[in-house]
């Protein structure tokens, strides 16, 4: 049985699985990324896809629909100018221009509360088009 807390701002709940899988990504590095979807019928944010450690940022972007909104977290590994291995966890709010207005409003009104449930997010990116979330943008924000 899954217990979820209601989001007072939008009436949206966050499944425990969302928080548990995020903790696994953050602490154990079991996943490269997680894609989250709002299940409107049950008023809950759920895990839609888990990206395995060997998967890439391209795999994440390919798993985002062209015409619907999603949230995602991505564990980005990079090497600093001082040759140090680092990692940053990005929160991505995907809201393509082609998605329904109702969905855009639903995701926008639930975003801040959902983000607060995921303790450890370091950077945020909002995108309405794939060009707004290219790997070069991710690298530029991380460094």
From TrEMBL:
The ADF-H domain extends over: 11-143
Residue spans crossing the bilayer: none
| Gene3D superfamilies found in the cross-reference section | Severin (3.40.20.10)
One GO cellular component this record assigns the protein to is: actin cytoskeleton
One GO MF term attached to the UniProt entry:
actin binding
Q: Which family does it belong to?
A: Belongs to the actin-binding proteins ADF family.
Instruction: Tell me what this protein is called.
Output: ADF-H domain-containing protein
Q: Which organism is it from?
A: Ensete ventricosum
